[in-house]
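Lines hold sequence, tokenised fold; shown next:
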Amino acid sequence: MARNMQPVLKRCRTLGIEPAVMGIDKSSNRNPKPMRRKQSEYGRQLTEKQKVKFIYGMLEKQFHKYYDIATKMPGVTGSNLLQLLESRLDNVVFRLGLANTRRESRQLVNHGHILVNGKRLDIPSYRVKVGDVISLKEKTQNSDRMKEIVEVNSSRQVPKWLDMDKNTLTGKVIALADRDDIDFDVEEHLIVELYSK
């Protein structure tokens, strides 16, 4: 499987993303160079798409499939796209505070540490539904690494569309994410404009 191996801080600086959105506490010591010329409309659209792809850890083919699904759904295409991305299992694990970054949450899912409704699931792109219960395997819950992660993320705010029980490390999907639940600045209409050309 192809992976994006770019340095995270460098990519964040290029796309104008705060490293905290990626789950990283560091910041770059380098000063960003001011842009020499005004960015074109196409450049803005492309940057916005690259930013969202980078945050959710996706490559072009998979991201375009999500866009195709979003266009067929009723409602606003841009909001539908963000809702689909937020409802991915790896993103939900990150948002519940069971991983420090989305990359780490993807690895947890891939390695079979996550249970959905009591069944082991190792597909990071699985779309959670309202009422799904996300939990950790018992062996994983008791590991020192997991206890450390949960302690570090205990202050992180869980979005209102998810419910988290910190004692049993079990999360539940109460509703699907709204546009207001996105925790970073994004102009999704630019992505729609780019793909609809």
In short: The beta strands are 114-116, 119-120, 133-136, 162-165, 170-173.
